Amino acid sequence: MKKIAFINGSYVEEKNAKISIFDRGLLFSDSVYEVTAVIDNKLIDFPSHVIRLNRSLKELKINYAFTEKYLLKIHKNLLKKNPFNKNEGLIYLQVSRGSADRNFLITKNPLSPNIFAFTQEKNLTNLNTNGLRIITKEDFRWQRRDIKTTQLIFASLSKTEAHDIGADDAWFIDEDNFVNEGTSNNAYIIDNNNTIVTRNLSNKLLPGITRQTVLEVAKKLKLTIEERAFTVTEAISANEAFISSASTLIAPVVEINNEIIGNGKIGPITAILRETYIKISKKNSI
Fold it and tell me: Which of 175, 194, 198, 203 is most buried, by the most CB atoms less than 10 A from its CB?
């Protein structure tokens, strides 16, 4: 079956989707993106993804005029044109400042943004119960990690390094040995008091949309939450650890730097959080 992508107002076969070599997203990573999960052929947390997209665009001062209604139509059309076999997957959306002659100086004349989107089939709700093995890496990314830009090369290199040595992913740590986040996810531990701990929002990490919903779910479950920095040592001695993102939902971390977390399996709190998150997200999907 031919897969269809959206690009600048048109729906075309993916192999025919083209963008200018002068696109500033291509030349400078002058672009932002969002990834929305699809479960039961419906969009998860979509309004929140649009809110974050708008914030990212405004932070980079990218000119745009599209609305949530317009973006929703794109996503829904892509779902119709690319039906998932198991009704689960992801929709990737990217917006760049536009195309112009290569110049580090951003022109004062507003450009027409380039926007494209495509689907990726992925099984989201069938959890790999083995859990994730994590390594830690010093965080050498730029200092505005709260903006969801396409500057992802260090994250890509770090995740590849983790796979090359038999791990699954990497957590980035700052100069004080505090965990910022994962390569493409937010990081959590559940300490010896069964408190969920995740780093407080700042320029050091992305304000995850799944993170936002996870914390709302935890409150509904009357679980204790602390938004603060935690060290790698604290993580290794924790009862449980996990990550969250649109592409993984909630996934357990069972090993950090070759040290086993808890009993080396998905913990009871992580399990109930994941189960409840999926249930609530399905109920609120569009």
Answer: 198
Core vs surface per residue 186-222: b (16+ CB within 10 A) or e: bbbbbbeeeebbbbeeeebbbbbbbbbbbbebbeeee
CA distances from 20 to 12, 17, 110, 265 (A): 16, 11, 17, 47
According to DSSP, residue 222 is labeled T
116 and 148 part of one domain: no
CATH number of the domain enclosing 176 = 3.20.10.10
Report whether 115 contacts 98 (CB < 8 A): no
Domain contains 278:
yes
Domain co-membership, 176 together with 150:
yes
Task: For residue 156, give the nearest of 176, 143, 141 by alpha carbon.
Answer: 141
Answer yes or no: do 166 and 96 share one domain: no
Range(s) of the domain holding residue 235: 132-284
Alpha-helical runs (H) found in 84-177: 153-164
- Tell whether 126 is covered by a domain: no
* Active-site residue (options: 137, 148, 159, 204): 148
Pull the structure tokens for residue 231.
């060290």
61 is catalytic: no
CA-to-CA distance for 4 and 6, rounded, in angstroms? 7
Distance CA 72, CA 165 (A): 40
Query: For the segment 105-149, what is each residue's pLDDT rounded down to a tens digit?
Result: 999 998 999 999 999 999 999 877 689 999 999 999 999 999 999
Q: What is the value of pTM for the model shown? A: 0.95
Q: Assess whether 137 and 253 both reside in one domain.
A: yes
Number of C-beta neighbours around residue 92 at 10 A: 17
